[in-house]
Write a sequence for this structure.
């Protein structure tokens, strides 16, 4: 896909539909915030009902399905971006996601088999993350600076934490479900907050990748980007950090529920939201150190884990753990996406951003599925300690390699 931004320059340059760049950024940001709030509220409700119904195992199945759907969103976004402009891509993704949101919520409430609900979740998140990649590409088309991308991620992650906290505070019955008007309100919010995506697509700047690549003389059609993995070292490094470090924070809702009850789930979500607000400053401070990307990302991974070492000992430590995880996760996602956007080739931005999210999700999917199989919730601190040790050792190896044999490590680390 091409960044069809013919009006680069100041924030006073006009964009599609006569909007100025600053106005378009606000429009995209508000759309992302509204959509993410509804998704977070509904998704947390689904996980909590699943936990009440089938324990940590069912919640982990739903989380794994969510993350696998995120993985599949990368090839889906690549396929759509080579054929559809930004308007059609965003509306197609939202058109698939909307009925899936209904089926997921209806399925978990009505007691459908967990595996079937997981299938709906997988399709829902495949469409959701393909659309999110398109939305991030639209943001980059207006302003490609790392600071803008990091702030966009901060707002999205922060409002997701707020939606999670609200869902955890909703009054429920013995089966973990609200009733009456409250249940209907959850349906309305979960489904209705997706509608702004369809509206904001009217002024999309992205055009199909095939329209900017030269025609192939041999085949007589547009040559399109291949299906090779883009930036394999960066993608594998990002996925590896999530595999090692993200398990405890991704399972924070069911783990906190089992350890301390739903009231602490809300507190942990608020703490996570507060942590995201410092991510922009943290990225700037770490950036001034001039560290290679892999070492920066290792530091973010250690931040995701640090608080969870003590979380099972005393309930308030959960708040500290999620505060640190919110800061580190948001900084890591913004850092990685900015790096991917900076290195993307013309016509591949949406696909590359989708792969960036999918490799993080792949690492997270393995972590959330494997962690409950190896340990129970009270042992989460031991798992966090072991993961921090592994990540620390790997960081030391990379640092030593950069110091003693830079010709071997520099290409991988930077």
């Amino acid at each position: 896909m091409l960044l069809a931004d013919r009006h680069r320059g100041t924030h006073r340059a006009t964009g599609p539909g006569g909007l100025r760049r600053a106005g378009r950024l606000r429009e995209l940001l508000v759309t992302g915030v509204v959509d993410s709030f509804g998704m977070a509220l509904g998704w947390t409700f689904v996980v909590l009902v699943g936990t009440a119904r089938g324990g940590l195992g069912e919640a982990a199945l739903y989380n794994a399905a969510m993350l696998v759907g995120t993985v599949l969103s990368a090839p889906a976004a690549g396929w759509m971006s080579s054929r559809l402009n930004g308007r059609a891509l965003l509306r197609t993704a939202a058109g698939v996601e909307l009925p899936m949101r209904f089926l997921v919520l209806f399925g978990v409430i009505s007691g459908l088999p967990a595996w079937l609900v997981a299938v709906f979740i997988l399709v829902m998140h495949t469409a959701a993350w393909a659309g999110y990649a398109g939305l991030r590409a639209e943001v980059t088309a207006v302003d490609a600076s790392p600071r803008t991308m990091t702030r966009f991620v901060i707002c999205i992650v922060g409002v997701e934490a707020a939606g999670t906290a609200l869902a955890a505070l909703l009054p429920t019955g013995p089966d973990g479900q609200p009733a009456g008007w409250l249940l209907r309100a959850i349906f309305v919010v979960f489904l209705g907050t997706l509608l702004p995506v369809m509206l904001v697509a009217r002024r999309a700047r992205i055009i199909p990748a095939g329209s900017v690549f030269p025609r192939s003389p041999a085949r007589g059609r547009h040559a399109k980007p291949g299906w090779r993995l883009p930036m394999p070292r960066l993608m594998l490094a990002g996925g590896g950090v999530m595999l090692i470090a993200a398990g405890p924070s991704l399972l924070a809702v069911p783990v906190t529920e089992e350890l301390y009850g739903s009231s602490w789930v809300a507190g942990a979500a608020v703490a996570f939201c507060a942590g995201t607000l410092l991510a922009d400053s943290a990225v700037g401070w770490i950036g001034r150190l001039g560290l290679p990307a892999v070492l920066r990302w290792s530091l973010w991974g250690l931040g995701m884990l640090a608080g969870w070492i003590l979380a099972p000992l005393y309930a308030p430590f959960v708040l500290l753990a999620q505060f640190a995880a919110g800061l580190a996760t948001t900084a890591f996602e913004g850092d990685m996406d900015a790096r991917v956007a900076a290195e993307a080739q013309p016509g591949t931005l949406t696909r590359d951003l989708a792969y960036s999210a999918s490799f993080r999700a792949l690492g997270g999917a393995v972590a959330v599925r494997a962690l409950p199989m190896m340990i129970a919730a009270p042992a989460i601190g031991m798992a966090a300690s072991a993961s921090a040790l592994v990540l620390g050792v790997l960081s030391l190896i990379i640092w030593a390699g950069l110091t003693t044999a830079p010709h071997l490590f520099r290409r991988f680390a930077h």
User: Anything to note?
Assistant: The domain at 17-211+240-409 is CATH 1.20.1250.20 (Growth Hormone; Chain: A;). Strands lie at 2-3, 206-207. The CA atoms of residues 172 and 178 lie 4 Å apart. The chain has one domain: 17-211+240-409.
